[in-house]
Amino acid sequence: MPRKIIIDTDPGQDDAVAILLALASPELEVLALTAVAGNVPLALTQRNARQIVELAGRQTPVHAGCDAPMKRKLVTAEYVHGKTGLDGIPLPEPTLPLHPQHAVDAIIEALRAHPPGTITLCPLGPLTNIATAFRRAPDIIPRVAEIVLMGGAYFEVGNVTPAAEFNIYVDPEAAEIVFKSGVPLVVMPLDVTHKALTSREWVEEMRALGTPVGQAVASWTDFFERFDTAKYGSAGAPLHDPCVIAYLLEPALFTGRHVNVEIETVSELTLGMTVADWWRVTDREPNAMFMGSVDRDGFYRLLTERLGRL
Ligand code: BDR
Ligand code: CA
């Protein structure tokens, strides 16, 4: 039986690769994509999500969710992802209609309709939709099997402020609700994703697939690599969000520690920091499997094999 997942997302080229990886994998049943404001405003993230589903030749429902963080003004990242959020080769206007149900209602309804412990949530953007669903319908919290998310940073420090990673920084109040929810969490922070760097050979392998998916992935990587290689001085760029889906498919690619992670919501200086008790120096209860490393070559092998199926 495939594992049922809901991907909550703000595409984003790396979100797009994560979604394609999930749609290509028979071990996973993607019940829905729920779009949230993040890398770009909601009107674009929901549209991009529909383009990605169509690129994969699927009909997966796409729901639009929250258009702003719970308590703050939206911060976006066009400087990384481009004006559309999915800059690269132009994709056709999507014909797949947006599902009329709000993403938060879709999450609540799915968790109530399926047996407890059978749906895994995969957030790839700010945690606004998930936290809003938990606030509105606390009965769904114990029904979630697991949350596997991309967000946070500890040893690798921040990418949007010196202390914070983008997804957590955009909506720290939402992140706090999720991290305190009691749902088993697996966290893919920058500590992992900055080890999952693209290479020229891999981009060329994607292009050589000779498929619309291969062309799109190569063009997206070319686009965001320019920004990342200049910023970090690295040879490639981190493919953040696909780490979440890769973990579901091959957990042994990742190693980490089960520790306490709290979210900073007060200090202006360190707002959105994921304070991970890596050395277990407090008696705070562990609440998250906080990953620290990835088998980079294994990760890219998996991506190549799966994306080649689409
Ligand atoms: C995260 O922020 C976004 O720009 C990416 O899609 C990823 O989810 C990395 O900090
Ligand atoms: Ca994302």
CATH fold label? Inosine-uridine Nucleoside N-ribohydrolase, Chain A
Q: Biggest β-sheet: count, sense, barrel? A: 8 strands, mixed
What distance separates the N and C termini?
Answer: 21 Å
Low-confidence runs: none
Run of helices and strands: EHEHEHHEHEHHEHHHHEEEEH
- CATH superfamily, by name, is Ribonucleoside hydrolase-like
Bound molecules: beta-D-ribofuranose, calcium ion
The CATH class name reads: Alpha Beta
| Strands, total number | 10
Structural class: alpha/beta
Whole-number count of domains? 1
Radius of gyration: 18 Å
Average pLDDT over all residues: 96
Q: Architecture in CATH?
A: Alpha-Beta Complex
Count of alpha/pi helices = 12
Anisotropy-based shape? globular
**Taking strands numbered 1, 2, ... along the chain, how are they ordered across the largest sheet?**
3-2-1-4-5-6-10-7
Helix content: 25-40%
Report the portion of residues in β strands: 15-25%
